[in-house]
Amino acid sequence: MSLKPLLILSLCIAIAAHSADTRAWGPRGHELVAEIASRELRPDVKKEVERLLGDRADLAMREAATWADEARNEPAFRNTGSWHYVNFPRGQCQIDRTAQCRDGNCVYGALEAQVKRLQNRKLKLADRAEALRFVIHFVGDVHQPLHAGWKDDRGGNDKQIRAGRRDGGNLHGFWDGDLIRRENTRVREHADQILTPMPKLDRTWNAAAATDWALESCQIVKRPDFYFKGVDLPADYVSTFRPIAEQRLVAAGYRLGNLLNHVLSF
């Protein structure tokens, strides 16, 4: 094989590895967050969402929820990869914007910036619609524990696992999809199944909300039973962590709805 094909192959592998580091929940998880949030919207805010996105609020928000993952592969958005996550030193759930989020290039910094864009009614409709798509997505991202995980294993991407007879996956990917998957279930039905009242949940959007949500995610990763020795998934891992993953999805949906009610109200 000549040098040129080898270089191309190496570049493809590097791009794939980088892409894996910035995905959270997978399409279904993000759609669930959007579906739950759409049910929380006040009538005037729902109309504004429909004006910005051009469709019925629940449908438009579910479609918008995955846009940021798709857009980052386009030339205009290739600088947004680091906006999907924040890395902490192992075992240290503490905010340090200089070390973690220089120039706002992390999930909590990006969420804060896009909320400000969305609030700015002087911007063009297309710019505010773009900001709304980012906000919908990043609220989901920051609630996925491994998007606020350890830097040394790239948020669980380097933790190889074997679930039953299935080999070759990693812990991050397992949390993205397999952990929350329900077979033959549509998004609305899936949302109904996991949606439970959370009376103690702080839904308030304020200046500290994005960092607080990231720290909540980090504390889950910090649990002593979150990581495990070897590659075989413990027998009780799903029964332990699926309810937690579903709680994070529900929290993200409630909080996204409240955030939009706050920033889009007239």
UniProtKB/TrEMBL annotation:
Pfam families: S1-P1_nuclease
Keyword tags: Disulfide bond, Endonuclease, Glycoprotein, Hydrolase, Metal-binding, Nuclease, Signal
TM regions (residue ranges): none
InterPro entries named among the record's database cross-references: PLipase_C/P1_nuclease_dom_sf, S1/P1nuclease
GO-annotated biological processes: DNA catabolic process
Coiled coil: none
UniProt key word Glycoprotein: yes
Signal peptide: 1-19
UniProt GO molecular function: endonuclease activity; hydrolase activity, acting on ester bonds; metal ion binding; nucleic acid binding
Protein name, per record: Endonuclease
Species per Swiss-Prot/TrEMBL record: Ahniella affigens
